[in-house]
Amino acid sequence: MQRLRRPHSKGDGPPVFSHEFVIQNHADIISCVCMVIFMGLIPQITHALASSIIFVQYNVTVEPKDPEGLGSSARTDLKPLPETMYQHGWKDLVNVVFYCMVWIIIHALIQEYIWERTVKRLRLSKVKTGKYYDSGCLVVFYLMCLIWGVDFVIKEGYLWNWSLLWEDYPHTLMRLSLKFFMLNQMAFWLHCYPELYFMKAKKDEMYSKLVLYTSSLLIIGGAYFMRLQQLAVLLVILHYSVEFLFHASRLLHYHGKDDIAITGFKVWQVLFVLVRVVTVFVSVLTMWYGLGKVHDKLVTQLQGMEDLPPPPEEPGDNETTPTLAATPTAAEIATYVQFTDWMYRLAGLVFLLALQLWVGWTFLSYQLERTAADKTKSPEPAVKKPGKKSDSKKPDGKKAASKKNNKTSKEKTS
Question: In whole angstroms, what is the distance from residue 18 CA to residue 304 CA?
Fold first, then answer.
């Protein structure tokens, strides 16, 4: 990332609004756009619009259940306070686009102030430099998501009780940390598409990267749309832990720490297969067994709601203040019944299993290429036969001729 400056001569810099100018100054341009959006919070006219772009929307107030032994006449200081939760909505797409711009700025800052300063000392080739930048950005992102996701999973108890992944489905209410986590996941993988242009990626490298970005975006976005964000967080933690180990080992290899890097690659090979097996097991358990049980409950609930009259609509609608969480309507329950139908569940499982097969095939191809490269780099040394002298110890022509002349001179003198 370079500062915006006006060129003083024709050869001082690229023309304004040219491709090279946008590539060199893309972080500064996007920073200006984000600053304008933040400035929209000051005037009252644009405050609502800027707030819907920057802050997470669809917050509702959830009244806690009456604990045992506390009735309506109990002390108010002993009752738990209402909790603010968040729901899904179309405005989440606006948040994802804004967070995508923020990730572009963060990516540029990390690359300029960390990885570009360290890569100068390594003197790597262009191909290795591109891989170094990719691994550097992904290591930071994976580490942040692992800390964030593990903290959420432990607090909610999903790691010890997997039945929570499908119980009380649909999971329409989320805490702020979970919703912000999911939106940032989609924003990060969305920002990777323009980064291909900013980083001048080659055509032979774009296919594997596009498959990675698209599959990650589809899985996380699909799980968020189908109210399966808890399952998505658990699968993301499993996948990111292995990928973090791989990219960290590659960075150590480029820095000359081969002993640590080799150990890291060996651990990565073992954990990669283990994570694939656990991912398939958790996906089948949740989407086929767990949601299959939930489907029957939702069908029964929908049949009971069709006989009831619709609730009266309350006048007034203020989205800026938290509202009480409403129970799902019959139309929403019908949508969730459709999500848990066997066809939708089978389609999701086929997509996940096909992705795991593709990842496994990529892993196997990578291992075969590495094995072939190691064999070509280190050929077996030739076995020397006993009784033969090497060619390097044979005297050259001049030394042989001088020895012959000395021998003849000694015979004459004798």
Answer: 63
Q: Which residues pair with 174 in a beta bridge?
A: 86
Q: Do the Cβ atoms of 23 and 30 come closer than 8 Å?
A: no
In total, the chain counts a number of residues equal to: 414
Nearest-CA neighbor of 105 among 221, 42, 46, 187? 187
Question: Which single residue is written with the structure tokens 């808890």?
Answer: 230
More confident residue, 269 or 64: 269
Q: Are 275 and 242 in contact (CB under 8 A)?
A: yes
3-state secondary structure the chain: CCCCCCCCCCCCCCCCCCHHHHHHCHHHHHHHHHHHHHHCCCCHHHHHHHHHHHCCCCEEEECCCCCCCCCCCCCHHHCCCCEEEECCCCCHHHHHHHHHHHHHHHHHHHHHHHHHHHHHHHCCCHHHHHHHHHHHHHHHHHHHHHHHHHHHHHHHCCCCCHHHHCCCCCCCCECHHHHHHHHHHHHHHHHHHHHHHHCCCCHHHHHHHHHHHHHHHHHHHHHHHCCCHHHHHHHHHHHHHHHHHHHHHHHHHHCCCHHHHHHHHHHHHHHHHHHHHHHHHHHHHHHHHHHHHHHHHHHHHHHHHHCCCCCCCCCCCCCCCCEECCCCCHHHHHHHHHHCCHHHHHHHHHHHHHHHHHHHHHHHHHHHHHHHHHHHHCCCCCCCCCCCCCHHHCCCHHHHHHHHHHHHHHHHHC
CB atoms < 10 A from the CB of 75, how many?
A: 7
Q: Identify the residue whose tokens are 């259940």.
A: 65
pLDDT in tens, 345-386: 899 899 999 999 999 998 898 888 888 887 776 555 555 555
Under 8 Å between Cβ of 212 and 234: no
CB atoms within 10 A of CB 95: 22
Q: Read off the pLDDT of residues 275-298 as tens digits, 9 standing for 90 and up.
A: 999 999 999 999 888 888 888 888
Residue 340, C-beta contacts closer than 8 angstroms, at least 6 positions apart = 169, 291, 292, 294, 295, 298
Q: Is the pTM of this model over 0.85?
A: no
CA distance to 168, 219, 242, 283, 294, per residue, from 353 (Å): 25, 12, 18, 9, 22
